[in-house]
Amino acid sequence: MTTLAWIIVGGVLMAGIALVGGLTLLLREATLSRLLQPLVAFAAGAMVGGALFHMLPASLAVLPVHATFLWTGVGFALFFALEQLLHWHHCQRAAADCRKPLTYLVLLGDGLHNFLGGLAIGSVFVADVRLGVAAWLAAAAHEVPQELGDFAVLVHGGWKKGRALAFNFASGLTFLAGGLVAYGASSRVDVRWLVPLAAGNFLYIGASDLVPEVNKPHSLKQSALLFAAFVIGLGLLQLPAAHEH
Fold first, then answer.
1. What is the C-alpha to C-alpha distance for residues 68 and 55, in angstroms, rounded to an integer?
2. Chain centroid to CA 37: how far?
3. To 5 degrees, how large is the angle CA 166–CA 103–CA 178?
4. Which end of the chain has fewer CB atoms surrounding its CB within 10 Å, N or C?
5. How deeply is 245 buried, as exposed, middle or buried, from its count of CB atoms within 10 A (0-12, 13-18, 19+)?
6. For residue 189, how many other CB atoms are within 10 A of its CB?
7. In Å, how far from its chain's centre is CA 79?
8. How far does Cα 64 stand from its chain's mean position?
9. Rounded Cα gap, residues 186 and 142, in angstroms
10. Radius of gyration (Cα) for the chain, nearest Å?
């Protein structure tokens, strides 16, 4: 497939992941809670692994060391600022405390987050399709638990279930929009700096957003399960990197 085709397919599939929120209708709350935490730990490992094993090595191959880590820092700070501005994270795991006006803030934050993610990962596809696939897989691992949480927030905030799924899907399509913008700009602008920017995004989401979600007092068995899920996510992103080198 062409680079553009990869970006389009990746964008549509990422939007489709938003529909996974419908699974919350089939599961009991206790079951969903047991599944969410290992998924979040797995996603954290995948996000950190995607940054460390794929995006940063690829960036160091084409950019000066200082520029690579500068843009990584900018990417980390950008998502920190975005989260502070929109406060969508505070609602994501506390659906019972959310009110309908805040659900729109959740959608706005998710849509902007997806657009920036599509912009960054689209530029990674432009740089190297294999690298783009690895980055997409890491981002997709993060989207599953996030979309489950977002859907629960919307429903508890008073949205009808069908409408919540439709708007979640629409916010997911902004990922495709970001990818297309990155592809269109790549012929006129050097987008290589977006790869370490995406690495900074991934490191922030994995280490500062997802790990604290599960890094809380648990039984020894549960703690071991969460650590194993994190290592599996990390390891799965390391395996293709080891094969490439």
1. 10
2. 16
3. 60
4. C
5. exposed
6. 12
7. 11
8. 26
9. 26
10. 17
- Cβ 94 vs Cβ 155: under 8 Å: no
Q: In 3-state terms, what secondary structure has residue 72?
A: helix
Report the greatest alpha carbon distance in the chain: 54
Q: Which of 40, 93, 48, 49 is nearest to 229 (CA)?
A: 40
Q: Report the SS3 class of residue 191.
A: coil
pLDDT tens per residue, range 11-53: 999 999 888 877 777 777 677 677 778 888 887 888 888 889 8
Q: Mention every residue, 6+ apart, whose C-beta is less than 8 A from residue 162.
A: none
The structure tokens 């920017």 sit at: 197
Q: What is the 3-state secondary structure (H, E, C) of 114-132?
A: HHHHHHHHHHHHHHCHHHH
Q: Which of 203, 42, 232, 50 is nearest to 124 (CA)?
A: 50
Q: What is the pLDDT of residues 90-120, one digit of tens each?
A: 544 444 444 455 577 667 767 877 887 898 8
Cβ(222)–Cβ(101) below 8 Å: no
**In one letter, which amino acid is 62?**
V
Task: Give 60-68 contacts, CB < 8 A, sequence gap 24+.
Answer: 62/127, 62/192, 63/192, 63/193, 63/196, 67/193, 67/196, 68/196
- What token pair was written down for 7? 């970006």
CA torsion 126→179→53→44, rounded to 10°? 180
End-to-end, the C-alpha distance of the chain in Å comes to 23
